[in-house]
Specification:
148 residues; mainly alpha; two-stranded parallel ribbon; 6 helices; DUF2568 domain-containing protein; transmembrane; DUF2568; transmembrane helix
């Protein structure tokens, strides 16, 4: 076999192992791909709030909103948490009921998608609208835990 065939076979084998792990894993909640997706969704949402704040007002108000909205949402995201949440560190500043936390997360991502649609970034808004449910379906065990 030439080196190209071996390289392709190695890559195929790596992908097979990753996808096999995804399919066989009972919980995707802590899977690196799902954690990366969640992280990227959180960053995209905060960026959406910053851009929306910047565009919503002009001058100093725009700057204030561009900084203030992401800080506000990041603070709410970090402070209101469920103790021992399997999808987070488990630490919390203000202990929150799982249902309340789930509602906060859905509002966070929903408002980010609305901000993107309002800005005219329809593809980005659609991407968040599609990827967030995929993330939560993949994290079904965490969602069930939060609803108990």
């Amino acid at each position: 076999m030439n080196s190209l065939t071996v390289t392709v076979a190695e890559k195929h084998s790596t992908f097979s192992v990753v996808f096999k792990e995804i399919i066989q894993n009972e919980s995707m909640n802590k899977h690196p791909l799902n954690l990366a997706l969640r992280f990227l969704l959180e960053i995209a949402a905060l960026a959406a709030f910053a851009v929306w704040g910047w565009k919503a007002a002009s001058g100093w108000w725009g700057i204030l909103l561009a900084i203030g909205l992401p800080v506000f949402f990041a603070t709410v995201w970090g402070v209101f948490a469920v103790k021992n949440d399997p999808g987070r560190s488990g630490k919390t500043v203000i202990p929150t009921n799982g249902v309340v936390r789930l509602i906060l997360e859905i509002l966070f991502f929903g408002l980010a998608a609305l901000a993107l649609f309002d800005l005219g970034f329809n593809i980005a808004g659609l991407a968040i609208s599609v990827l967030v449910p995929i993330h939560y379906v993949s994290s079904y065990d965490r969602v069930i835990w939060m609803l108990k």
